[in-house]
Design brief:
Helix content: 10-25%
Number of domains: 1
Number of helices: 2
Strand order of the largest sheet: 3-6-2-1-7
CATH architecture: 2-Layer Sandwich
Structural class: alpha+beta
Length: 129
């Protein structure tokens, strides 16, 4: 029986300071995370679509408290590209959010908030199982 684990995946962000918009990769396909796990492009697409259908809510640091942060763009990269000088892999989930909360925006500008993070629960399946 596979282990059930909670995990957090992060990727760097870039920002448009004039418009208070943060852009970033939410998940990258087949890149090993800090827990030694990887997510396929197919699973990333499912997660990105499920997020838009079921949630579209943002919080800060997994607080589960709604924040004045609005998702304004979300897509799965159809090919490899470079956005704001950052490489984006084909199949990566890219998101943009508008930060309406002054305190959160200050945290972004100071580098205290540095990436999108997806939290979730999954069943760990060993490779080759």
């Amino acid at each position: 029986m596979p282990d059930t684990v909670s995990t957090e995946l992060t990727a760097p962000i870039w920002k448009d300071e004039d418009r208070r918009i943060v852009y970033g990769v939410v998940l990258q396909p087949d890149v090993v995370d800090s827990q030694g796990d990887r997510v396929s492009a197919e699973e990333i697409e499912k997660a990105a679509h499920r997020f838009l259908v079921e949630s579209r809510k943002s919080d800060v640091q997994h607080s589960e408290q709604p924040a004045n942060v609005d998702v304004i763009e979300s897509f799965v990269a159809p090919h490899e590209m470079v956005v704001a000088g950052q490489p984006v892999l084909k199949g990566a989930w890219v998101m943009a959010t508008h930060i309406g909360d002054d305190r959160i925006w200050e945290q972004v500008k100071k580098g205290e908030l540095t990436g999108y993070s997806i939290g979730g629960t999954a069943s760990r399946i060993p490779v080759g199982a």
